[in-house]
């Protein structure tokens, strides 16, 4: 875990409050963070299904064309309204639903 980002309690709360930037997505366009940032949390506003969820590396679950990507930890379930996922993601695209992505 040498490349793991560590946030103080205050920094982590600020990320959850969206103070490092957010994005709302309700379509099927691929969402990428601003340069120098990652998507560190995603909250479902309505039940959401991902077409793509590209993790920074194999430490995080993801979703691509095959379940063998990212050590088989493919996120293929529905993210229910009100649920959160945390990690470090390069981008995502939805098949359906609505989410808010948080940058860190």
Characterization of the model:
With 104 residues, the protein is mainly beta. The protein has 1 helix and 3 strands; from the N terminus they run H-E-E-E. The chain has one helix at 9-16, and strands at 22-25, 39-55, 84-103. It has a 3-stranded antiparallel sheet with strand order 1-3-2, with no helix packed on it. It is globular. The two termini are 18 Å apart.
Uncertain ranges: 67-73
* Total beta strand runs: 3
Q: Which term fits the overall shape?
A: globular
Rg = 13 Å
Kindly, what is the distance between the CA atoms of the first and last residues, rounded to a whole number of angstroms?
Answer: 18 Å
Q: Per DSSP, what share of the residues sits in E-state strands of 2 or more residues?
A: 35-45%
Order of helices and strands: HEEE
Strand count, sense and barrel status of the largest sheet are: 3 strands, antiparallel
Residue-averaged pLDDT, rounded? Answer: 80
Q: How are the strands of the largest sheet arranged?
A: 1-3-2
Share of residues in helices: under 10%
Structure classification: mainly beta
Number of helices: 1
Quick tags:
mainly beta; 104 residues; 3-stranded antiparallel sheet; 1 helix
List the helices and strands and how they pair.
Elements: H1 9-16, E1 22-25, E2 39-55, E3 84-103
Antiparallel strand pairs: 1-3, 2-3
């Amino acid at each position: 875990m040498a490349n793991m980002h560590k946030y103080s309690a205050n920094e982590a709360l600020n990320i959850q409050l969206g103070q490092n930037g957010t994005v709302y997505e309700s379509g099927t366009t691929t969402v990428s963070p601003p340069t120098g940032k990652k998507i560190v949390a995603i909250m479902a506003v309505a039940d959401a299904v991902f077409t793509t969820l590209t993790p920074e590396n194999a430490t995080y679950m993801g979703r691509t064309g095959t379940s063998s990507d990212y050590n088989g930890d493919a996120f293929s379930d529905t993210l229910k309204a009100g649920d959160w996922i945390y990690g470090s993601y390069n981008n995502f695209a939805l098949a359906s639903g609505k989410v808010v992505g948080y940058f860190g």
